[in-house]
Specification:
By secondary structure, the protein is α+β, with helices and mostly antiparallel strands. The chain has 14 helices and ten strands. Helix 7 packs antiparallel against helix 8.
């Protein structure tokens, strides 16, 4: 029974935690609070926070525990009218051990191996690389949540867990690569091979809905560290540019090994340039995606919208303000509109970008008449509203800031 909130279900959170719920944290905060209350009610009645609730039960679709990320981010952004201690306890329940056999929720499959080896071994479980990355993403969100609540030991424990993805980085190949329990990277490795087209079954032990290229960009909530794994920052930038340059040029629902707007694992990739000191390339490629990967035709998306995931990406990117899911950070990019207004719980944030339709790059940014010297803002900086003003440019401006 829902008392004091509206009950929501049918949330494809493996998709929606990346863009839809971050958008709700801006424009639908009451509804977001109610969705969290709904998840906690499900956890109270079913024993676990769901991953993809449908109707009155768990579906166990996809993998990981994205509700951790969704709840943590909302709390960091000031949505706190729910039992945070209950939420943390439910997060820890699936993060620190497997669900019992026969449980209605599958939890984190192979989490016992993840905790023992500090990565998911490819010879002990399927989806080893993808699971490691997703579990780490959730653990970093739990760490931030626990830190905000003042639980320092939990925060440190999950911060350490959240770095386990680095143990699958092969410095020789410069990819996240399947690794067995003996610590040996799997030899039979094809970074351009797609799981969709993997009729040999070579990749079922490693990736999900994508290629090694698409899973290469790691955990967005730890993006600075991901950049640091590459042999140099310039190499990271060059490889990320290649990832976009080899993508299909228009809307294409056919799976490919490179950037695919219809695919969840790489949907944040264009914003990684901000973390590598090249915000001009974030501006270049977000504008390219907006122009080439979205249109109003019946086939106007690169894939399934997945509960609004692609639509929310478009809305946020076109505003020039893109949230990093699981954190309080917003990446800045080139707005598509000359003027936008966002109602954040009654506080109006006005975004102004004169000439944005013809000028795709950012020269300077001001928030409430104060210069912004980095390509990102925190939620606290915009929560009270005000004016975010972009001075636009026809040509890219190299700043090397991050």
């Amino acid at each position: 029974r829902a008392e004091g909130f509206t009950y929501y279900t049918d949330m494809s959170m493996w998709d929606t935690f990346r863009t839809v719920h971050p958008l709700y944290n801006l424009i639908a905060r009451t509804e977001q609070r109610d969705m969290i209350q709904s998840l906690l009610k499900m956890g109270e009645q079913g024993g676990y926070l769901p991953r993809w609730p449908s109707g009155a039960g768990y579906t166990n679709s996809m993998f990981g525990t994205p509700s951790d990320i969704m709840i943590s981010e909302a709390y960091q952004k000031g949505i706190r009218d729910f039992d945070a201690e209950q939420a943390l306890a439910l997060m820890k329940k699936t993060a620190l051990g497997p669900t019992p056999e026969g449980a209605k929720f599958s939890g984190r499959k192979g989490v016992e191996h993840y905790l023992q080896y500090k990565y998911c071994p490819s010879d002990l479980m399927e989806k080893s690389v993808a699971s490691t990355v997703e579990y780490c993403y959730s653990d970093l969100a739990i760490s931030r949540f626990a830190e905000t609540l003042g639980h320092k030991e939990d925060a440190e424990q999950f911060r350490q867990h959240g770095e386990y993805y680095r143990n699958l980085w092969n410095p020789q190949t410069q990819f996240f690569q399947p690794r067995n329990a003996a610590g040996v990277f799997v030899d039979d490795f094809s970074p351009e091979l797609l799981t969709y087209l993997d009729f040999s079954g070579k990749l079922t032990h490693a990736y999900v809905e994508g290629s090694a290229w698409q899973w290469r960009w790691g955990v967005p909530a730890d993006a600075d560290a991901v950049v640091g794994l590459f042999k140099s920052r310039d190499y990271f930038v060059a490889q990320l540019e290649e990832f976009f340059e080899k993508a299909p040029k228009g809307v294409c629902v056919t799976p490919n090994a490179f950037y695919w707007q219809g695919n969840q694992p790489d949907i944040y990739a264009a914003y990684l340039f901000n973390h590598a000191g090249r915000p001009d390339l974030t501006q270049k490629w977000t504008r390219w995606i907006l122009a080439n990967k979205h249109n109003t035709e019946p086939t106007g998306l690169d894939g399934n919208d997945d509960g609004g995931t692609l639509s929310a990406w478009y809305v946020l990117s076109s505003l020039g303000l893109f949230p990093t899911a699981g954190t309080d950070r917003y990446e800045l990019t080139s707005p598509l509109w000359e003027r936008s207004e966002i109602d954040i719980s009654g506080k109006k944030l006005t975004i102004v970008a004169e000439g944005a339709d013809k000028l795709p790059y950012i020269r300077k940014v001001w928030l409430n008449d104060k210069p912004v010297e980095r390509p990102w803002l925190t939620h606290a900086e915009i929560a009270e509203g005000g004016t975010l003003r972009y001075e636009m440019s026809k040509e890219p401006i190299r700043t090397d800031t991050k």
